[in-house]
Known about the structure:
two-stranded antiparallel ribbon; mainly alpha; elongated; 6% strand; Arp2/3 complex 21 kDa subunit ARPC3
Amino acid sequence: MKDNSNKIKVLAQAALCAALCYVGATFIKIDIPVGTESTMFHFGNTFCVLAALLVGGVWGGLAGAVGMTISDLTTRYVTSAPKTFVLKLCIGLIVGLVAHKGFKLSKEHSKKYTVVATVVSSAAGMIFNIFADPIVGYFYKTYILGVPQDLSKALAKIGALTTSVNAIIAVIFASVIYLILRPILKKSGLLREL
């Protein structure tokens, strides 16, 4: 019975995180038109990283992938949905791996250790995204969507800039929110042991 209760809690937390990822990518954003294309500054990655810190890499990655893919499908970024799913899943997996397999973040640690582990884990996922998003975006636009190479290259460079800003925002805000929520969730018995 307790095992089913834990599965339901994890599923509910992951669903809540997916909803936050959707809201962060759909409503808490600034669109930047680039010719016929667009890019954006957004808070979706913040909630993807937070999800991985809270519920682990697999569930956090799925939450980010599902939430932000639905956001893409319901906005002007519909053609980016497959790329978004893969990249956000990878962000969650990397953050979760570093946080919970490397640092054992859900265990009891000193405050300083917890802060460092949280920031380093968040940064690991976002560093991946800084490099992967423009590279995958270039190949995806060129070879899947048929965008001319020169335009894809220019869009990748602009995307690298917005991805870097999004990464900084995600590391700062996800770390702060997690560090605020951690003691509250621990006290209420909702912090997942990984």
